[in-house]
Amino acid sequence: MAARIIDGKKIAGLTRADIAARAARLEAETGVKPGLAVIIVGDDPASQVYVRNKKRACEEAGMYSVVIEMPADTTQAELMEQIEQLKKDEKIHGILVQLPLPKHLDEDAVIAAIPPEKDVDAFHPANTGKIMIGDYDFLPCTPAGVMKLLEYEGIEIAGKECVVVGRSNIVGKPQAMLLLHANGTVTVCHSKTKDLAEVTRRADILVVAIGRANFITGDMIKPGAVVIDVGMNRLEDKKLCGDVDFASCSQVAGAITPVPGGVGPMTITMLLENTLTAAKKAASKKL
Ligand code: NAP
After folding, report:
1. 54 a catalytic residue
2. Catalytic annotation on 286?
3. Integer CA distances (angstroms), 19 to 23, 136, 220, 239, in order
C-alpha cells in the first residue's frame, strides 16, 4: 500500500498562521514587533533565493525584516562590525548570517560573534550546548521542523527505533538529540557506517540528511516506517529531489515526506518561531 504523504506545506502554513497571530498579540500587548536581520555575503544564487524567502515569510507573519547585502570581498572585520551594529539594534531580535560564507571568512568566528539571545539559527556553541542538555531557548530550524511534522502527524517517538542518516552540526546531530529527548532509541549513521541498509531497515522513524539524490531506496526501509527526507538536491534538469528515492520508498513506508513540500517549508517556519521567541524574551526584559 502506498504511504501517507506528510504535507509539509500545509503544516507550515498552519504553523505560520499561528505564529503570525502570536506575533500580532505580542506587538499589541508590548509594542514589540519581532524583527529579523539576515546578512548575506556575496552573490550565490541559491543563497539569494533562501534569503528572499526568509524576508517574505517574515513580512507575511507581520514581522520586521531587513536584509543586509555585503559584497563577496567583505573582510572579516567588516562583517564583525555589521554584526556588532545589529547586536545593539533594539528593533532586531534575531540575527542570521546566510551560510556558506565565502572561503576567506571564518564561519565559526562569525557564528560565535552573534549574541546567543539573537542567534535564531541556534548555531552558537552556547545554544548547541543547551540543546545537548535539553534546556534550550532556540532549536536549529530544520531538526525543529522535523519534530513539528512528527508532532502534527501524531507520530509517537517514545520507545521507537529512530535512525538519523547524516551527522552534520546543523541537521543530523541536533536531530538525533531531539529524538533522544523525545525518548526515541536513536542510532546515527554517517559515511563510515558499515552496512547502512541493515541499520536503516531497523528504523521505525528514519530521518535522512546526507545531500545525495535518491540515495535511500525502498529495500533499505522497514515496511510501515515513517521516512523523513531532509535532503535538497538539484538534478541536472534543475529539478529538486530529496535523499530518499520517493518512488520506491513510498511503496514500503507508512508515511513519508515529499521533496519539495516536506521538510523544506518547515525550516523557515521554525526560523519565524525562533524570532518570535527572541522578541518575547526581549519584551519581557523591558517590562
Ligand atoms: P553535510 O554537512 O554535507 O553532511 C552530510 C552528512 O551525510 C555527513 O554526516 C556525511 O557523513 C553523511 N553522508 C554522506 N554520504 C553518506 C553516505 N553515503 N552514507 C551515509 N552517510 C553519508 O549536509 P547537511 O548540511 O546536513 O545537509 C544534508 C542535506 O540536507 C543536503 O541535501 C541539504 O541541502 C539538506 N538540507 C535541507 C534543509 C531543509 O530545509 N530542507 C536544511 C538543511 C540541509 P560524514 O560525516 O561521515 O562525512
Report:
1. yes
2. no
3. 6, 19, 37, 31
